[in-house]
Amino acid sequence: MKKIKFVYWQGRDFWLGYLQDYPDFMSQGETLQELQENLKDIYDEIRQNHIPLVTKVGELAVA
To answer: Which SUPFAM superfamilies match (predicted)?
Structure first.
């Protein structure tokens, strides 16, 4: 099973978050578990190329 990182926080009424590698796609849930399920759905949509123009986060080595 592959693991992916996500960033999340608790807002006033909802849990909010996004996939660390895809910060443009934010989601929410009434519970942390619901947020995680919503983020899994987003990840599946990205993997299946159903979402166009997906930006990605890269890493550079600098001196």
So the answer is: TTHA1013/TTHA0281-like
Q: Measure the CA dihedral 9/21/41/3, to 10°.
A: -90
Return the bridge partners of 15, or none.
10, 29
Question: What is the pTM for the complete model shown?
Answer: 0.81
Where residue 13 sits, what CATH number does that domain have?
A: 3.30.160
CA–CA gap between residue 38 and residue 19 (Å, rounded)? 10
Q: In which order are the strands placed within the sheet that holds 22-29? A: 6-10, 15-19, 22-29
Instruction: Residue count of the chain, please give it.
Output: 63
Token couple for 39: 């983020």
